[in-house]
Amino acid sequence: MPEKELQKIAENAKIIVNGYAFSKRDDGFISILNLDHPDCAMVISNESEIIETNMDEIEQGIVLSLAKRNLAFLEDDNA
Prior knowledge:
Layout: H1 3-12, E1 15-17, E2 20-24, E3 30-34, E4 41-44, E5 50-53, H2 57-75
Antiparallel strand pairs: 1-2, 2-3, 3-4, 4-5
């Protein structure tokens, strides 16, 4: 992924936690991108259910844990 595209994703992210950019999509799902390894991504529902991912099981567990702890900040328009 080109550096400018990665920078744009980071700037438009709702929150960034431990190098993962969390962004709300128009369809209501949450996109999560590993900024250190942009080939690793996940899409989850608001209930933290995995919709799609290419992350391994260990990274999935880490990212879901981060999502659950920070979901409130994704809903807050002032974050």
